[in-house]
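Sample A.
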Amino acid sequence: MTGILLDAQREAPPEPELPPPDLDLATTVRSFAVAVLARTLEVLDGRRPRTQLAGAVADPVLAQITALLQHGIVGGNADCARLHRVHVQLRSPAAAEFFGTFVRGARARALAGSLERREVRVSPPGVLPRRTRERWVVAEFTIL
């Protein structure tokens, strides 16, 4: 049998250099994620009103949380949910993904989702001119 012997000593092409991660941005995003996820768990437990999530979560996420509360799928347990771990992966300066765990009683559950920088209304409804600011918002959220 004859074949071709490949030169295993060839050098691979150099990897393109990636810029170092922005540690200040990563710290800011993770701090936001921890705060809003802890607040979300408190809302799901019935310890906070869902209105406290306004501006921090996207409208579809708020609708999803409202549906969970209306159908009694979450909460109703004497134990409060506690955020256990949160990991954040930056995708760009305006997008990130998170995943982590929370504990309620003896049971641990996973959660995951995405964060985005968006224009968020900061003036009360009915007040003109309407003021907005760019802030981090939970764009997707799921409990696994």
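Sample B, a different protein:
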Amino acid sequence: MKEPHSGQFERGTDGPKVIVVGVDGSESSMRAAAYAAGLARRQGALLALVYVQPVMAAGAALGAPVAAVTDEIAEDLMAQIREATERMRGIFEVRWEFHTFRGDPFNGLAKAADDLKADAVVVGASEQAGHRFIGSVAVRLVKAGRWPVTVVP
């Protein structure tokens, strides 16, 4: 006999309820956000846009205002998201939240996905050549094996 539903979180039962997408202002991350927004709209899921503010120890040691620069990027991304939402109001409705973390992109996205109980993670393909040698954020997320990961070119 099957036990009744305990009310606990369960992945992959009725389609995604939370889709996490990593955004950093790059073209590939904005394509990933657009793709994830379409998924969220069709599934009636919450779209969680996540920007991970890099911690640049070398810049901080030289007195560069690193936090101020990354805060500006976060504010600019939020403004772009709000503007796109307003343009599409009444045509393309999607529930969304914006989150920002400090640290490296992999750990920030993994924390966001865990904290938000994400059913799926969407990221843009890396635009940096060196990642084929050391591994991109997307590859690390896939290897973690904790969520379905979609990589948008």
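Observation for Sample B: The longest strand covers residues 46-53.
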